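As a next step, the fold was encoded as tokens, giving this record:
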Amino acid sequence: MAITFNGAHFPKDVNLFAVFFYVRYGVSYRDLGEILAERGVTVDHATLNRVTKYASQVADEARRRKRPVGRPWRMDEINIRVKGKWVYPYRAVDRFGKTLDFVLSRRRNKAAATKFFARALEANGMPRKIVIDKSGANTAGIDEINRMLRCFGCPIPIEIVRIKYLNNIVEQDHRFIKRRTRPMLGFKSFVAAVSTLAGIEVAGMIREGQFREEVCPFQQFVNFAA
């Protein structure tokens, strides 16, 4: 579904250029304003803060278009600050480090883990096993998913694996997110964090070659909004 830019102060390509370069590279809004100015577009850095809302819409489309991933999953969560409080990006990759899914949660508990796993299954199908840390909430989330699967007649449960070195892949993959969010010094709102993190994830997926399109990274990003 095409993203509508009705009411936007700048044309579609300018908005997407700003969003892509902000989520892909370590630039501030002021730096991005200077980059745009060199290309003949004068924009205040406060305005750039608002255009990141398009990132989550691009991410929704990218999530539908990505290549199939492996069935063994590695899942983990990290923490970031939003208005001085910790929130939790839940993330999962396959054994090759390809991104499966991601979601930002206000809580780290069974309900949040269950919601994440249900969303990941919807987009990626049934995994054979999921590698996690020793989190009781994540264990309870998979147990709840297995209970629901039994109700739908699935006789084979998802295997839970707790081997730390196997989860190194997803823990290393977190570095791309942390490296990009660290200069931001926290987010001012949960909605802004959701959109920005979704854009960062898509930029990472493009970098990892998770889409079939053979065009430059920025053009791939633009195509998701078409």
About this structure: Strands lie at 72-77, 80-82, 85-94, 99-105, 129-131, 159-161. The two ends are 7 Å apart (CA to CA). The chain has two domains: 12-65+188-223, 72-173. Residues 190-207 form the longest helix (18 residues).
